Amino acid sequence: MAKKTFFCVDAHTCGNPVRVVAGGGPNLEGANMSEKRQHFLREYDWIRKSLMFEPRGHDMMSGSILYPPTDTNNDVGVLFIETSGCLPMCGHGTIGTVTIAIEEGLITPKVPGQLCLETPAGLVKVSYTQEGEKVKSVKLTNVASFLEAEGLVAICPDLGELKVDVSYGGNFYAIVDPQENFKGVQAYSAEQLIQWSRKLRKNINNNYSFEHPDNPTISGLSHILWTGETLSPDSTARNAVFYGDKAIDRSPCGTGTSARMAQWYAKGLLKKGQPFIHESIIGSKFTGRIENEVEVGGKKGIIPSVEGWAMVYGYNNIMVDDDDPYAGGFQV
Ligand code: PYC
Description:
Layout: E1 3-13, E2 16-23, H1 33-43, H2 45-52, E3 62-67, E4 76-82, H3 91-103, E5 114-119, E6 122-131, E7 134-141, E8 145-156, E9 160-168, E10 172-176, H4 190-207, E11 211-212, E12 215-219, E13 221-228, E14 237-243, E15 247-248, H5 254-266, E16 276-279, E17 285-296, E18 299-308, E19 310-321
């Protein structure tokens, strides 16, 4: 009989969960976080499944494990764990991880108020503000983001033929804007969007392929970003982001916001410096901005920033016991 204990700190970023594994994570080999992610997926994916899926987690669960940085000029390496796998990059995960790490003293920043994070998708710079011990806001400057493909034709059950754009913001997103066969997120339930998303993602991945021009370990369409009418007149846009097999992001999704800003930029709808206030399915907001214009694999892209907040809500000593028939987690 073996029992493994993980010390976790739980938070939510604008409503979406972030569980940071502060103790019990495995040592990983690799020259950078992308290689460490591959090592984790080969040998330790059971930890992700145990901590993210029921009965210790749930359909939306998401989190991270912290590692010493490869380059000592940086502050920390971050491995993202989620029901969907180990994402190359996660925006709400970054905001929650930074909030937990600073408030709980898990990282000592080299420069107060700033952090350099090594993620599997690349370097992510962060600035944060504090009031006393509390982190009030976190702004991440994300990896280069770009519109990969425009107007792809895909088939969705019930809705029929849809035109989607595919954009990269740390993960590949199919963006479904309102059109003849899709009225916008406000017209449907989360349950409907989840059921359609699974099939739409499969249909797109069966007919098209996507690979990051500089990192072949980042490939395939993982997320569907449905768009629609905003709840608040102050917001620029609203989304419902599907991830994993059963989740709609409760936050406005950091990598999704980056991907959508890259889409708007490519279509001339958003310029460098303009605020992009993105609303989630529950109405929580991130503020995005184009910080810089760049070229990625011959395509015009952007360096986006995304700003939001997180609240820490608990400590969680989680045991995974070999005798537990559900040690590896499950999903219904
Ligand atoms: O915030 O980037 C994000 C994210 C990805 C999946 C869920 N949230």
